[in-house]
Design goal:
This protein has one domain: Vaccinia Virus protein VP39 (Rossmann fold, 3-Layer(aba) Sandwich), CATH 3.40.50. The protein is an alpha/beta fold. The protein starts with 7 loop residues before the first helix and ends with a helix. Helix 12 packs antiparallel against helix 13. The protein contains 15 helices and 17 strands. Bound molecules: S-adenosyl-L-homocysteine.
Length: about 350
């Protein structure tokens, strides 16, 4: 249980704001998630029943396996290069990569060609990933800039939602930035004039826009690299397919929503991903974004039901029930199937399954 006391990070941030004024939402997110001493991801393993939230790879091995087979087919469509980078951003416990590699063993040449690279900032989670991926040769880097060169297949599940955004609110006469300030020593949201911000004209007075500059920078760099050297980038996250969704900052603590300023460093903090913004960034860097798919459609197109059938064959009824429940959680529209979306960005001319079929049909 977590009581109402300010967290150690809340006290530090309050002192910083008292000293130098309100901080941007982006700086607040970065401190909450990435502060070396008190940051949420730096010190703990937040996933699963004992943690604060659960992600698709932790729900079922089928998720990572299907993505592993997707990667094999994508690699084949790339002409089966003898060496390529298989990278994952924000790998959490390493479950997705471990399941993907197990499924990909069907094609030994894929495994032999893959240079596995994990992009992770958390020392603690890097350690968890090393244990999980023991037996595979892999390298860990802290930034996309340090990835080895060459053609690449890149995965990111629930990565972009953890990257900082700034928020701007349209007033009657101009824009303000929503920031974190202080009221009677407690963290509170405040507005500060932002005369230099040029927001979209279509936004109504009182509405908020989020600017994910960090996500855009990473997407532009990766998409540029993929456009030049070949490959594909698969990003899965919850989010929306266009702007105008307002303030999406949310905190999760022990599987419940928590006010975003209540437990800095102890609660997970995320935003919804704006997939149109990411697709635009990819396009501007010369890569081709496929139309965004829902996670449900994507997994079904990859053969989720067939995989579930095989996994459950000859198993006891409880196991089959658990597999059915996992299918429903991953692909059902009331669960993750609809809110979660898949953006695939590929080098020009590469038809990536199942997006090629989708693109051809539309
Ligand atoms: N993909 C995993 C974990 C998602 S949680 C899963 O689906 O289960 C977000 C992950 O991104 C964590 O591993 C976190 O440590 C990592 N992360 C957060 N910010 C990051 C950054 N700026 N660079 C690299 N990794 C980051």
């Amino acid at each position: 249980m977590i009581e109402g006391q300010p967290t150690p990070l809340a006290l530090r941030l309050a002192a910083r704001i008292a000293n130098s004024g309100p901080m941007t939402i982006a700086d607040y997110m970065e401190a909450c998630l990435g502060d070396p001493q008190h940051g949420y991801y730096m010190t703990r393993d937040p996933f699963g029943a004992a943690g604060d939230f659960i992600t698709a790879p932790e729900i079922s091995q089928m998720f990572g396996e299907l993505i592993g087979l997707w990667a094999v087919e994508t690699w084949q469509r790339m002409g089966s290069p003898a060496s390529f980078v298989l990278a994952e951003f924000g790998p959490g416990r390493g479950t997705l990569m471990a399941d993907a590699l197990r499924a990909a063993r069907l094609v030994p040449a894929f495994e032999a060609a893959a240079r596995i690279a994990l992009v992770e900032t958390s020392p603690h989670l890097s350690m968890v990933q090393r244990e999980r991926l023991a037996g595979h040769e892999a390298t860990w880097v802290r930034s996309h800039e340090d990835l080895p060169p060459g053609p690449a297949i890149v995965l990111a599940n629930e990565f972009f939602d953890a990257l900082p955004v700034r928020q701007y609110v349209r007033g009657m006469d101009g824009w303000s930035e929503r920031m974190v300030g202080l009221e009677a020593d407690a963290l509170t949201f405040v507005l500060r004039p932002a005369p230099d911000f040029a927001g979209p004209a279509s936004v109504a007075a009182g509405d908020t826009v989020e600017v994910a500059a960090w996500s855009e920078t990473i997407m532009r760099a990766l998409a540029g690299r993929i456009a030049r050297e070949g490959g594909a980038f698969l990003a899965i996250d919850y989010g929306h397919d266009g702007a105008g969704h307002g303030d999406t900052l949310q905190a999760m603590l022990e599987h419940r929503y928590d006010p975003p300023l209540a437990h800095p460093g102890m609660a997970d903090l995320t935003v919804h991903v704006d997939f149109q913004e990411l697709a635009g960034a990819a396009r501007s860097a010369g890569a081709i974004p496929a139309p965004v798919m829902t996670q449900g459609d994507f997994l079904l197109a990859l053969g989720l039901l067939e995989r579930a059938g095989r996994l459950g064959a000859d198993k006891p009824a409880e196991t089959q029930d658990a597999i059915r429940a996992a299918v429903e959680r991953l692909a059902g529209s009331a669960a993750m199937g609809h809110l979660f979306k898949v953006l695939c960005v590929a080098s020009p001319g590469l038809d990536v399954p199942p997006f090629a079929k989708v693109t051809a049909a539309s």
